[in-house]
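Listing 4. Sequential folding, example run.
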Amino acid sequence: MRPRRRSGDVHVSPADPGSEEVRRLLAERDAYFAALYPERNTTLLPVATLAGPEVTFLIVRVGGELIGCGALIAQGRVGELKRFYVRPGARRLGLAARLLVAAERRAAQLGLWRLRLEVGRRQPAAIALYRRAGYRPIRCFSPYRPDAVCTFRGKVHRPVPRRRPAT
């Protein structure tokens, strides 16, 4: 089912990845990726890791319905984007872009200078989204291994300057 989108109906917010509703969405996402890629090419983070203090887990809702998710993992001054997913019936509505913008805003608040991600080559729409957002090809990074099925992208990111107290 394709949700109708009115600008006031779309909400991106942090969420608990351990909630039952989000767990169902993540299971749907994992099944989708399992159909696209061999098991050796799927790097799934457990829900407990997604709930860690270094992770900002975001969801997008349209009219109250959970449509997608994504995570930002802070690793020092670098952030990794993981587990981005929008339900197939809701694609091409700009929802993944909204999730990405929210993750980038959070990265700026955290003072992260660089963002990176791994995306499979069998997802041309996702690759195009990241390219439009300024993510360029980069070398493989840990914990991944170079693989013909995967591509790695990165972006230099400007954190929000910290304001000095008035004197």
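-- end of first protein; second protein begins --
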Amino acid sequence: MATVMEFTSPVEEFPLGSIFENLPEVRVELERLVPQDEFVIPYFWVRGVEADDIEAAFQDHVGVVNLELIDSIESEYLMRAEWNPAYFGILRALAEEDIAILSGVGTNRGWHFEVRGETREDISDFRSNCQAKDISIDITAVHALLPVQGEGYELTDAQREALVTAYECGYFDSPRRCSLADVADEIGITQQSLSSRLRRGHNKLIAATLVDQ
């Protein structure tokens, strides 16, 4: 059965963590992870920094090979990074066990990840891999990914919270009774994170209820 694990990690355990040394007010949120063999190329949002400062802030980390600005919305910047395959950190440990990252948020206080394995054994293997490689993680929650009010929905707790809160606030009403910002404030996350959770949640609900399998 698919299993979800949440864990925290010090800033230095993740390649993007080097940005906090020079820009302590920055917030980094992983947007999308693209597997390539046993490695990943992440897309992530950076907030609280000027565009000209972003690339220089990552240059000191041995794991970062290339960084590219993809898009920007006001003071938020969508970046694409490539890692040095020889660098072994959390990303590579996740990729080697085929663990999906559902969310990842980094500040100068550390990283918080929510990940999913196809089985509980996958999660266990990831933990063992981190221990063997001296990668510091602090596990805060582990639970089975169960269907939510319907066979096959398999929403995460975060996705369900986003959808239910948006519904109860009137975000899906016509006309809307609240904005995306209102819902994000109610949950305590950014608008970009909320948008991502709603999109993934909608995708799972549509696949489970409207699409012929």
